[in-house]
Amino acid sequence: MNQKPDKLIPAVYGGAIMALISAIPFINFVNCLCCAGVMLGGFLAVFFYKNNFPPDSTLTYTSGDCMGVGALAGVFGAVFGTILSFAVMALFGNFWIEYLLEMMRSFNVDIPSEAMEAMEQSMSAGISAFSIIFQLIANLIIDTLFGLVGGLIGYSVYKPKKSAMPPPMPQPPVI
Amino acid sequence: MDKFQKYAYWVIIASIMLWCFLIFIPPIIAYFEEPSKSVSSYAYRCFSNICHQHESRSLIIFGHKLAVCGRCSGIYFGALLGALLFPFLKPGRNLPVRLLWIIITLPMLIDVFLNTFGMFTSSNLIRILTGAFFGAGSISIILPSAIEAISKLLSQLYHHKGVTNESKT
Predict the structure, then answer these.
(1) Residues near A82 by Cβ (< 8 Å), separated by ≥ 6?
(2) Backbone angles phi, psi at B121, to 5 degrees
(3) Is the pLDDT of residue A21 over 70?
């Protein structure tokens, strides 16, 4: 096999994981730590891509390949994530913000008025074409960027080891 | 470093600087458009996916919080500092990468863990410092790979441009 494995399928898997982490309420708090969920998607896309290389293959993946897979996973993650998060919101509403507010009230947490305002605003916000497009564009920029970083982290962890032995010399033609 | 690697390094520095600059945009907009806050709320919303944006945990500028919290700000500015110092400092470059990831993540994770379970009340300074340590460490790990990838891309673009110019003449 003289060609490198396809990048699309690992990127789709990575993007799907990214979308699930970003769209499922409560799990999406992971992204509050510098987009850790998005970076995990890029990282896992590199992991799946690396696994597609046969063990005896002479070809190997480069940092550029991993950056590309991570960024592509970010694009898929943004599209899937936007669709999924609006689907969750359409089906269940903003129940998790209500839950958070309720929890904060029960623990007598002193919530700043600005934060309270923002929470109430997001609870009352409906789904509009503008909000979907705005969210999609913001997700496309951020997920691609952080997916790319995740891909680079994946490359640094799964960097192919340089072989100590030189490649075998080609055999002379038999006369 | 060859010519393309130097270009790649400066492309990365410029990108991190741009990102750090973007963090200041929402509070600046909010300062100039008081009291309506309609545009700045959208600017803040762009960053809401990547940070909780709690005011009490954020740095304040012109009376408004930055687009991301203190820890995230620490990570990004730490990454910028780490990238700028990268050619001069070589700490831990001989250590295994996985061990390096653990070393740079541990202080931040301990801080988050102790805070979450109420065993310790962290201050903004600690959040910024642990974040900056993580940011500077992580950029020093991924920067060589990023330089390698971007320099290859730049060299391919340059040679491709050279070929198309030759074919035109």
Answers:
(1) A132, A135, A136, A139
(2) -100, 115
(3) yes
| CA distance linking residue A81 with residue A71, whole number of Å | 15
Helix (H) or strand (E) holding B69: none
Q: Shortest CA distance to B8 belongs to which of B139, B160, B143, B159?
A: B143
Residue-averaged pLDDT of chain A: 80
Which pLDDT score is estimated for A115?
A: 59
* pLDDT of A114: 58
Q: Report the alpha-carbon distance of residue A102 to residue B13 in Å, rounded.
A: 44
A173 upstream amide cis, omega within 30 of 0: no
DSSP A6: P
Overall residue count recorded for chain B in this entry: 169
Instruction: Please answer yes or no on whether A156 and B49 come within 8 Å at the CB atom.
Output: no
Contacts of B1 (CB under 8 A, 6+ apart): B9, B87, B147
Q: Is the pLDDT of residue B136 over 90?
A: yes
Backbone dihedral angles phi then psi of residue B40, each to the nearest 5 degrees: -65, -30
B119 has pLDDT over 60: yes
Nearest by CB to A34, from B75, B141, B145: name it: B75
pLDDT of residue B157: 87
Q: Is the pLDDT of residue B51 over 50?
A: yes
> Most B CBs within 10 Å: which of A28, A30, A32, as the mutation test of the B interface?
A32
What local confidence, expressed as pLDDT, does residue A44 receive?
95
Number of helices (H) and strands (E) in chain A: give both, helices first.
6, 0
Cβ-based contacts of B51 with chain A (< 8 Å): 32, 34
| Whole-number Å distance between alpha carbons of A125 and A12 | 30
Segment A141-158 mean pLDDT: 92
A-B Cβ pairs (cutoff 8 Å, strict): 70
